[in-house]
Design a protein that fits this description.
elongated, 12 helices, 386 residues, 2 domains, 4-stranded antiparallel sheet, alpha+beta, 6-stranded mixed sheet, 12 strands
Length: 386
């Protein structure tokens, strides 16, 4: 009876260990789907601006990023690349003509094509004749569709249809008006702005203010690619230099980093329980050999291989281990299915666990088999002088 009770405790411990470790691996994948992972750029691109204070209000030389600031940013260990924004120094406005009767002043920015999350080459994203290609934030289109259009009784616009619409872009350079046709070529999830080709924007700025060619460059904002937007060292440096960024991106990154820390701690606890169970398994097998010492000695004298005797016992434990793993994964798979169906997932989670987790049913028992077999065999040879 005691032996059965000990076996139940042992396999219950293994079940808990597997649930903790394997569920943490699945939750890690779920967190990446919900908050973005390193293969997804959304949480690893930040737009830096300087915090407005009473000392720098209205002073562009203090509010903007100069060459020294950008050189300093590039030296940060957490930063991979820095892309300054060029901003328009001229007046610009847009109207929708007869199709969409609206008028608005415009604020243009330009940035290196490498930093834009729209699949366009530099050749594709350039001004041809009087047509200006424009990239806007996806949020701007949503604001128009669900705010401005509904309130003003204007037609809502799909992404595909928006690319077919041309608007009139009115630009004033050196007191001369010129009208261009603006055509949207893409929507950006990374950059909240209205982007036009940087070379074209810079040329208009120089035409409006020729003195800029001889002045130190000052950029209102910079787009920064970082290794991890939740890095506490990065956030600390930003505070030290009074840099601001999208608080939602930083907030989600902080939540993600704290969540991963908790998952790592839980996984470590599971690994500790698993190691403890392995120790119990080894001790359990040793006890079995001690209880049958005379029988083992007789079998050895009759020519039975000690390695084979150890292997037989180890194999039985590993088969039981496979069963426990299968039950654990079935429980996790059920939990994943219900989690994916719940409102928490927001449709981002898969209903199935990562297929690689099922490989644990084979990999872990095989590794345990060879580990336990070798450990017990060495103990047997050393202790019994077989």
């Amino acid at each position: 009876m005691k032996k059965i009770f000990n076996s139940v405790i042992l396999y219950a411990g293994l079940f808990i260990a597997f649930i903790l470790v394997l569920s943490c691996l699945q939750l890690y994948e779920n967190a990446n789907r919900l908050f973005g992972n390193k293969s997804s750029d959304s949480n690893y691109w930040l737009t830096f601006s300087k915090k407005i204070t009473p000392d720098n209000i209205g002073r562009r030389e203090l509010l903007g990023f100069n060459e020294k600031d950008i050189a300093g940013l590039k030296k940060w260990q957490e930063v991979e690349s820095v892309y300054p924004f060029s901003a328009n120094e001229f007046k610009a406005s847009a109207n929708g003509g007869d199709f969409i009767p609206f008028y608005t002043d415009l604020y243009f920015e330009g940035v290196d094509i490498k930093a834009i999350d729209v699949p366009l080459t530099e050749e594709e994203f350039q001004v041809r004749g009087d047509e200006i290609p424009i990239i806007i934030s996806r949020e701007y289109l949503n604001l128009y569709n669900y705010g401005f259009a509904l309130n003003q009784g204007l037609p809502q616009i799909s992404e595909d249809f928006a690319k077919k619409i041309e608007v009139n872009i009115n630009i004033v350079v050196n007191k001369q008006n010129k009208t261009y046709r603006g055509k949207m070529v893409g929507l950006s999830d990374r950059i909240h702005s209205v982007l036009i080709p940087k070379k074209f924007l810079d040329s208009l700025n120089l035409a409006e203010k020729p003195q800029l060619a001889n002045q130190p460059k000052i950029f209102n904002r910079v787009l920064v690619q970082v290794q991890d937007s939740g890095d506490e060292s990065l956030i600390s440096k930003m505070k030290e230099h009074n840099y601001e960024s999208n608080q939602e991106s930083l907030r989600s990154a902080k939540i993600k980093s704290k969540l991963f820390l908790v998952l790592n701690l839980i996984a470590l606890l599971g690994i500790f329980i698993f190691a403890l169970c392995l120790y119990i398994i080894v001790s359990f097998i040793k006890i079995q050999f001690l209880e049958k010492q005379e029988e083992v000695s007789i079998k050895n004298s009759l020519g039975y291989s000690p390695k084979k005797m150890v292997g037989d016992i180890s194999r039985r434990f590993c088969i039981n281990l496979m069963i426990v793993l299968a039950v654990s994964l079935a429980v996790i798979a059920g939990g994943q299915y219900f989690l994916a169906q719940s409102g928490v997932s927001n449709g981002l989670l898969s209903m199935y666990i990562n297929p690689l987790l099922w490989a644990a049913i084979i990999i872990i028992p095989v590794l345990v088999y060879f580990f336990v077999k070798e450990l017990i065999y060495r103990w047997l040879i050393r202790s019994w002088k077989i």
